[in-house]
C-alpha cells in the first residue's frame, strides 16, 4: 500500500500552518511524557502511545459491540441494561416469525421483512448499475484526451457532497414543480409525483445513490486501468486485434482483481444504505423505500415506543451479513495485492 | 462544407473515428450534464426569490421584479408592464393592490393613480440575486449556530483523530511489544463494524457518559478511526528505524522522537488523513441525528434535514444553506484534489 508515495516530499503548506499550535502543545507535553518514560521504561512506551486510541476505541467501538449482543437478548422499554429483562432468543424469534418470507405482510415484524426485500432489490440493482457505470466512466477517462483532470473532477465531485446535500438537491429537482416535471411538461408529458409513487421512488433512490458514488468507484478502476502495461495494448495493435477483443482479452482480465474489490466494496456500502434515501424519500411512500438501517434507526430511536432489543437483534443480523461481505472483500483485495496489480 | 466537417472531425494521428470515440464523447457529455447540471441548478435556484421559485415552469436565471424609486413614496415600488386598450404597453409602478384591481402610477407623473385589473399587468423583471436567502437564515434561524457546531465538531474531531491515530500508528510500527499483532488484528477486524450496526449500544454508552445531546458526544465516538491508524502505520513503516536509533543515542525522549522526527516525516500521510477526516466529519449525518436532540446543538447536516422536513418547506432558505454547506468541501476539493484522488485510488478508503 504505497498510499502517499506520489505526494511524498511536498508536504502541503497547510500542515505548516497547523503545525505551529501543535508544536506548542507537544512541547508542553515533553516533561510529563519524560516522567512517564522513566516510570514505564522504554519497552512500556509502546503501550503508552497506544493507550489513548485504544481507550477511545474500546469505549466507543468494542464495548458497544459487546452490549449490542447482550441487548439483543433482552426485552422491555427500559433503556438501561439493569432494568431490562432477559428474554433469550425472543427478539430473534419475533424478527423471524413469518408465514411466508416472500410476503412481508404475513410476518409479525412486517416492516423488517419489507426492509429486507427492499434492501435486497436495491443492492442487486444498484451495485450492478453502479459497477457498470463506474467501469464505463473509468474506460472513458482512461483514454487519451485533453483536460482529463477536469473530466475526472466532473464525475468525482458528487462523491464529496454530504448525503443530506445529495438528497436535497434531487428532492428539489424531483418535486412536483421541479425541473424534471417542467422539462416533461414542456415536451407534452404529464407531471409525475416522482417520490410519491412506489416504483418511481425506488428508481430515484437507486439513481441518486449511483449518482453520488459513481466517481469514487470510477477512480479506483481508473487507477487499475492505468496500471495495465502499455506494451500489451501496443502488441495487440500490432497483431491487428479489434478494440472489443482487446477489451475482453486484455483489459477485463487484468482489471478483474480491481473490479472484484469495487464490487465487494459497493455491496458493503449498498447494504447499509441510509442517508441519501432517508433524506430523499424518508422510506416512503409507505414502506416502499424503507431499508434495513432505517428500520433499525426507527425501531430503536425514532418511534415513541423505542424497542432497543429488537433494533439490536436486527443490527446483529445485519452485522453478520456485513462481516461475511467484508471477508469476501479482504479476500478480493488480498488477491489484488498478490497479483501485484497495485 | 465538407472541408469544415473534415477539419472539425480531424483527429490526432490522422486516424478516422471509431464508434468507441463517439460513445466516449457521448458519455462525457451526458456525464457533464447529469453530474454537474444538478449542482448548477441548485446554485441558480438558491438565488431566486420565493415567488420566483414557486413559478412553473421555472425560469433558468433568478429573476425578480424591478423596483423603482418614485417621488412621494417612501419605499421603492415594483414595476409592471401594463397593456393598454390601444395595444401599446407602458411601464408603471404599483402602489397597492385592492382585490382584483391594482393601483399604479407612472413614475414620471406620480400624482395620478391608474386602476388596472391585475390580469392586465405583467411584472417587469430583471436578473437579480436574492441574497436575502443567504443572510436571513443566518440571522433569523439557528443556521449560524449550526455552522459553528459543524466547524467545532470537524476541527476538534480532526485534531484528536490525527493525534491519537498517529500515536497508535507510531506504537504499532516502531515498537516491539507483546500483543502487537493482537491489537492490529482487532483494529483490522473493526474495519468491518460499520456505525449503523452499533448505533443502539453506542447511544447507551454516550448516554452513560453524560455526553448525550452534546457536541463531544458526536466527536468522541468517531475519532479512533481504524482506517486512520492503518493508513498512518503503513506509512510510518517506511520511515527508517536508524533515524529513531540515532535520536535515542542523542538522548531524545520517546515523546520527542514521536513529535519531532516521526510526525514531520509522516506529514503527507497525515495530510491525507486530515482531508478525509474533515470530509467525514463535515458530512456525518446518522450519528449526529441520533445524539443531538436540542436545536441549538444541531450540526449543519442535521439542521438542514430538519429544516427541509418541516411541513412548509422554505426552499429558498434550504437551497441557499445547502450551497453554503457545500462551499468548504468545494474549496478543499479545488485546492487538494490531488491528495484526495491519489488517496482514494491507492487505499480505496472514503
Summarize the structure.
The complex is a heterodimer of chains A (342) and B (350). Chain A has 342 residues and is mainly α. Chain A is 72% helix and 1% strand.
Essential attributes:
heterodimer; A: 342 residues; mainly alpha; MetI-like fold; 13 helices; 72% helix; 1% strand; globular; disordered N terminus; B: 350 residues; alpha+beta; SH3 type barrels; 3 domains; 6-stranded antiparallel beta sheet; two-stranded antiparallel sheet
In the sheet with the most strands of chain A, the strands line up as 1-2
Full CATH superfamily name of the largest domain in chain B: MetI-like
Mean pLDDT of chain A: 83
Q: List how many beta strands of chain B DSSP finds.
A: 8
Q: How much strand of chain B?
A: 5-15%
Encode the helix/strand succession of chain A as letters: HHEEHHHHHHHHHHH
Number of helices of chain B: 15
What is the annotated CATH architecture of the largest domain in chain B?
Orthogonal Bundle
Structural class of chain B: alpha+beta
Indicate the percent of residues in helices of chain A.
over 70%
Low-confidence stretches of chain A: 1-11
Largest interface: A-B, 120 and 112 residues
The CATH topology annotation of the largest domain in chain B reads as: MetI-like fold
What is the CATH C-level name of the largest domain in chain A?
Mainly Alpha
For the report, how would you describe the main beta sheet of chain B?
6 strands, antiparallel
Which structural class fits the helix and strand makeup of chain A?
mainly alpha
Question: Helical segment tally of chain A?
Answer: 13
Question: Could you explain the architecture of this structure?
Answer:
The complex is a heterodimer of chains A (342) and B (350). Chain A is an all-alpha fold. Chain A contains 13 helices and 2 strands, in the order ααββααααααααααα. Chain A has helices at 13-28, 30-71, 90-96, 110-141, 148-160, 163-174, 179-186, 198-226, 230-238, 243-271, 275-281, 292-302, 308-338; strands spanning 74-75, 85-86. Chain A has a two-stranded antiparallel sheet. Chain A is globular. Mean pLDDT of chain A is 83; it is low at 1-11. With 350 residues, chain B is α+β, with helices and mostly antiparallel strands. Chain B has 3 domains: 2-44, no CATH class; 63-127, SH3 type barrels; 134-347, Orthogonal Bundle (MetI-like fold), CATH 1.10.3720. Chain B contains 15 helices and 8 strands. Chain B has helices spanning 2-9, 19-45, 50-53, 132-140, 143-174, 180-190, 195-208, 215-223, 226-236, 241-249, 254-265, 267-283, 286-291, 300-308, 315-347, and strands at 63-65, 67-68, 77-83, 89-98, 101-106, 109-117, 121-123, 125-127. In chain B, a hairpin with a 2-residue loop joins strand 5 (101-106) and strand 6. In chain B, 40% of the residues are buried. At the A-B interface, helix 1, helix 2, helix 4, helix 5 and helix 6 of A face helix 2, helix 5, helix 6, helix 7 and helix 8 of B. Chain A: InterPro entries: ABC_transporter_permease, MetI-like, MetI-like_sf. Chain A: It is found in: Cell membrane. Chain A: Keywords: Cell membrane, Membrane, Transmembrane, Transmembrane helix, Transport.
